[in-house]
Design goal:
The complex is a heterodimer.
Chain A: H1 9-17, H2 23-41, E1 44-47, H3 49-64, E2 76-80, H4 107-114, E3 118-123, H5 157-164, E4 170-175, H6 181-187, E5 190-193, E6 213-218, H7 221-231, H8 249-252, E7 261-265, H9 275-290, E8 294-298, H10 303-321, H11 342-354, H12 357-370, H13 375-399, E9 402-406, H14 422-426, H15 433-437, E10 442-449, E11 455-462, H16 467-481
Helix pairs in contact in A: 2-3, 5-6, 7-16, 10-12, 10-13
Chain B: H1 2-6, E1 8-19, H2 58-70, E2 74-75, E3 78-79, E4 82-85, E5 95-98, E6 105-106, E7 109-113, E8 119-131, E9 135-137, E10 149-151, E11 158-164, H3 171-187, E12 200-210, E13 220-225, H4 228-247, E14 255-260, E15 265-271, E16 281-282, E17 289-290, H5 293-302, H6 307-318, H7 322-328, H8 332-341, H9 350-368, H10 379-390, H11 396-409, H12 413-420, H13 428-441, H14 443-450, H15 457-468, H16 474-485
Helix pairs in contact in B: 3-4, 6-7, 8-10, 10-11, 13-15, 13-16, 15-16
The chains are: A alpha/beta, B alpha+beta.
Amino acid sequence: MQELLSFSILELGKRLKNRSLSSEEVTKAYLERIKETDEKIHAYLSILEDDAINAAQIADKGFKKNNISSPLQGIPIAIKDLLCMKGTKTTAGSKILENFISPYDATVVSKLKNAGTVILGKLNMDEFAMGSSCEHSAFGPTHNPWNLEHVPGGSSGGSAASVAAYSCIASLGSDTGGSIRQPAACCGVVGMKPTYGRVSRYGLIAFASSLDQIGPLTRNVEDCAVILSAISGHDLKDSTSSKKKVPNYLKTIDRGIKGMKIGIPDEYFVDGMDPEIKQATNDAIKTMETLGGEIIRISLPHTKYALPIYYIIAPAEASSNLSRYDGVRYGMRKESESEYGSLFGMYSASRDNGFGKEVKRRIMLGTYALSSGYYDAYYTKALKTRTLVCEDFQKAFTKVDLILSATTPTPAFKIGEKLNDPLSMYLSDILTIPCNIAGLPGISIQNGITSSGLPIGLQLIGKPFDEEGVLKGAYAFEKETKFYLKSSSL
Amino acid sequence: MEGKLLKYETVIGLEVHAQLKTKSKIFCGSDASFGGNPNEHTCTIDLGLPGVLPVLNKKVVESSIKLGLAVGAKISENCRFARKHYFYPDLPKGYQISQYESPICEGGEISFLTKNNENIIIRLTRIHMEEDAGKLIHDDESLKNLGSLVDFNRAGVPLLEIVSEPELRSPEDAELYARKLRTLVRYLDICDGNMQEGSLRCDANISLRKLGENSFGSKVEIKNVNSFRSLRKALEYEELRQSEMLDDEQLISQETRLWDESSGVTRNMRTKEYAHDYRYFPDPDLVPLEINQEWIEEIKKTLPELPDAKRERFVNNYQLPLYDSEVLTSENALAHYFEKTVEYFELKDVKLASNWIMGDILGLLNERKILIEECPITPSYLAEMIALIIDGTISGKIAKEVFSEMAKSGKNPKKIIEEKGLRQISDLDSLEEIVIKILNENTDEVREYKDGKHKLLGFFVGQVMKETQGKANPKTLQKILEEQLSK
């Protein structure tokens, strides 16, 4: 692997600025690296070679004229294929959108373009972000760079694997129940889900609108802060985006955690947790203490309801959001006569052929939960219980500044291991889901490697819109432990 | 029929959809106007592309608040949008964004006058905001067998759904209610109220119950009525159909029926078993809508004088009959026309102007199928003409001629009278001369009159009018005739 691929965003930025490196040569190196690694890991669904080189050349022209628009100028990143990008295939990992070419840019994509970023390609994912392993992609699974027999996690599996494999410097993913943090943990990278409303969802193909949030996956916490600063902020096109001012996250990142109160929720040491992960989490607590953090045991008593709430709300919203894929205007269309006539025959044939098994399962779950006669028992009850989970966090955050836990109860499992056991697959998100339920910012950072050579993730959860606090804690930890410097042998 | 209906009470509730006259659509910036080439008024959002999000148009909320204030509804401080799911090719997202559990307005009422000047008050259940769907164009020759096509220009155009309580008791009242609602939305300038173009659409729920009974019968929903008249006719048909079924002790099933205008009947569209489960739930893409008192007060200030208040003012200030006031205030522009016309009139002459407007002007508009705003006769010319009647320059009869000339040419009435020599003959000398001439030519009739056949007076009037081409001042003529005949 070429040395220039190992630079972080900040390191590379310096070299681009002083023109010891050009964005074009870096971009070409990454495109080369993609070809080399993707045979093994299949992180990319499309590679935008020409567009990327073109963007790199434009960035280089800027550097030449000392015209520098942002710290991301000329930086080659990649994005999850759930994000619409003008003129490119945007599949959401689904056959139903296999040939869909987006006519517009998602807000985050236009922000990145305006910042001068080079977009290398679009990354694999579980279909419509439904899954925790990337095995539910209609275009084949992504493999974990640390061990190709293992899953990279999901749904942003391509986003995590590509960063871990150095086939992009950073990526964007989306997180509905852990879809950034869980694969980040599985692949040994940093992944952050911002507060709900921090980043515009416009142009993110919706899975569960009240839970979805876009966020960065990077090799270290500083890079994460740089990208988060670039993509955050209010968007007139997304009514749920917040008008709160966006701080420069890099500015406060190194202020340390002295005096910070760190809550350890008992409920997050779940049954069946891998002993090495448990040990690593306990070690992390000690590290935080030595860094000056005050460790406080807390309770989040309604944690056990988070998973059931999630599996009512997320499928309910998904069943509604995915209604638009009907074969009428775009996407796959299959004609068929049925007992309901050719129109409904077309609907069911298109959706039956276009959607994969997990997506269909969730559409069925959600449709059922919203049906008259069941709505109150399921959906209304889930919303009420959601409030209880939120209140748990509110109470906890009167006593602590951050909450610390493992990101996942186990390291990345083997490909195929849980494919036919959806419930056990769902459990891999048990520690990440509550954060989405409550809309809080959460990050997963590297917390060492298991004896079998798989990465372990550490999760930090912050108060609403306190991304600064989360990043501060994460940065202090990574600087102390230097786990982030370990990379796969790929 | 009358006899049968006496046994039953008709219960009707209306759901009216009013398309709002906003520039852009309810959740995106696309042009919301009627027409355009197919799919010209669309964008990524109203086409329901992957990843797009709705953003609420504030003007739609303002229009809703206006109507809410006008009908005295309670305006919700915190309402939400909900998704209503069903699959149809004209519905891009597979759901319609509407309101369900928390509409923007609740309660309120609409009152209307019946033919017998009875004021009927109908309470409203709710008013809510929603988006319209697109339009299917089915295969015909012009499509060269392309099958069905979809035009999404209308998709996302804002609608208000106004739901009444089931308090209407006859098809006629239903029509009057719907007309009054149209008057209101037009006064507020939030909807153009055109039933043919579909900017006002009406679905009716109708059931019958035995007189004196408290519970409702099974309701039938009627769709596809395209005019006020067909609303009434469809309800009349349904009233009769249901009463006959009840007479035969048949069960009326809850169903949706379509009005077939050409054959004048309603036909089953779907029965209850096939009713949709719309799976409503709050739209997570739209935050709850907060409406504060300040905003409401601001909008209140912009409200025009409303039809009922105007009607009362017409009755009180112009001393017009209730009926006249009702007709004249049915359109804001018409009321304005009237007020312009009588601006300098004495109170005693106002009724004459009202007669001319309700009769001749409305007749003219009807005949030419134009709006009052397009009337070729300006209020000031009409006022001038009426003033000429009042001061005796022309007779009422001649005025009709002047009126039709004004309608044709748009000319000043004085000019028309001059040009056509229509000035009334009122001076005694010239009229006396003509009367003497007529009496001399009709000596037989004069004799008969003097023998007591006094109704011949009309004959002499007629003869003089003929001679003067109707220009004789009728009052003066009568006086001269009586004088001459009593000699």
